[in-house]
Every structure is written in structure tokens, then in C-alpha cells.
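Quick one, C-alpha cells below. Sequence please?
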């Protein structure tokens, strides 16, 4: 099977696609999320493949950001990837958007605390730590409500100087400073969104699944579930 991997991330306000070829990122691009993603995701994938002299049939594996993050965006990306994978009979490797946001952070930064926005007063977060040249997960992806994020930070070892990054990092700056004081660090806006090239690299490291077995990692309830108990 071809070693070409297509990576897709749509869980943030910026969407991304990337191609990995022979272990190297051959192409990568980002574009506005959600509304633009509905209309532009497939045409952009087609154009990227064409520019690389490739066809859909040349893709050997898919990597997809399954969340947590924006519900609509996750659905768009996951349905698109599962459809392509099912048609071509290719495996799909699910990737956490929080992990994909951390992978290319500078090697000297650790531990990393990626945070993505949910609805007002809520966020998604996890903890990753650098071990040698690898990124190791130290917590599951969490959905945090109210003062949950502050408590989440206070659970970290006192010797740590956590680095916040992701789409909710700036909004949670005051909370992080209140919990950690001078120990709180921030990676900056260049690490605000999951990276499609990171999705490719993470997908390359893990086994692919049957497309029908890949499920979204929403974590939080939709409005229909909150108000009416309707499962989406």
C-alpha cells in the first residue's frame, strides 16, 4: 500500500490539510474554518493532490482530527475523511486535536497544556510532556466547566512551569496566572490551532482503523442534548 498520508484538521476556527510522502511533509495549507470548510475542503484536497501529481487512489492512509473542538467542524472533517476512506478501502487514524496542536511546539517547552474553546465558561484541555524527542500524553482530553480549568492546573506538580497553547490559551490567561503565578507560560498565537502536518505525523505512528470505527471526540453535549436530551 502507498505510504502517502492525507491529514485533515477541522476542529478549530482554522482548517488544515497536509500530505505526507515518504515520511516527509510534501504540502500543507490552512484556511478559515466551519463555513469555508463546508465549501472548500474537498476542492482544496483535490487541488493539493493535483499539484503533487497524485490521485485520490494514491493515498494509502488518512489521518483526521476527531476533536475535541467545534462540533460542526469536526463533523465536516470526519464525514469527508470517512467517505473518502470507505470509497477507497483505506484505513483512518484518529488524532486528538489537542495533541496535534502540541506536536510542533519548541522542544524546550514542557509540560504542554493545550486548551481549546467550548461554549462560554467551558474549555477542553490535556497535558503532554516532552520525554527525549517524543511527546508523551499525561492526561486524557478533558471537558472542563466553571472553575474546572483552574483546578486542573492546580493538580500539576508544583515543580512544573506549564506552557499553555491553543485556541483558548489567551482567554484563560488570567485563570492560569491566578492558579500558577509566575510558573504559567504561554506559547503564543502561532500555536493557536491544530496543525494538519502534525495530524499526518501522528497518523503515521499509529495503526489505522476501519473508517466506520472512527468516532468523533466531542466530549461536550450539543445544545439539543443539553435542552432536549436528543443524542447527535
Amino acid at each position: 500500500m502507498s505510504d502517502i498520508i492525507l491529514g485533515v484538521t477541522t476542529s478549530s476556527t482554522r482548517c488544515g490539510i497536509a500530505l505526507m510522502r515518504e515520511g516527509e511533509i510534501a504540502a500543507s495549507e490552512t484556511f478559515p474554518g466551519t463555513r469555508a470548510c463546508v465549501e472548500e475542503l474537498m476542492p482544496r484536497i483535490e487541488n493539493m493532490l493535483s499539484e503533487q501529481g497524485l490521485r485520490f487512489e494514491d493515498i494509502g492512509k488518512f489521518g483526521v482530527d476527531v476533536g475535541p473542538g467545534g462540533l460542526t467542524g469536526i463533523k465536516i472533517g470526519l464525514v469527508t475523511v470517512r467517505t473518502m476512506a470507505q470509497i477507497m478501502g483505506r484505513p483512518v487514524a484518529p488524532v486528538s486535536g489537542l495533541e496535534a496542536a502540541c506536536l510542533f511546539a519548541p522542544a524546550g517547552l514542557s509540560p504542554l497544556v493545550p486548551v481549546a474553546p467550548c461554549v462560554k465558561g467551558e474549555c477542553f484541555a490535556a497535558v503532554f510532556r516532552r520525554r527525549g524527542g517524543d511527546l508523551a500524553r499525561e492526561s486524557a482530553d478533558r471537558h472542563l466547566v466553571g472553575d474546572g480549568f483552574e483546578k486542573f492546573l492546580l493538580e500539576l506538580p508544583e515543580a512544573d512551569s506549564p506552557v499553555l497553547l491553543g485556541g483558548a490559551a489567551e482567554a484563560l490567561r488570567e485563570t492560569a496566572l491566578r492558579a500558577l503565578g509566575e510558573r504559567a507560560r504561554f506559547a503564543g498565537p502561532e500555536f493557536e490551532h491544530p496543525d494538519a502536518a502534525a495530524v499526518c505525523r501522528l497518523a503515521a505512528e499509529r495503526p489505522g482503523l476501519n473508517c466506520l470505527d472512527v468516532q468523533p471526540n466531542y466530549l461536550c453535549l450539543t445544545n439539543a442534548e443539553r435542552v432536549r436530551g436528543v443524542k447527535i
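The CA atoms of residues 17 and 204 lie 15 Å apart. The chain has two domains: 4-97+195-228, 107-191.
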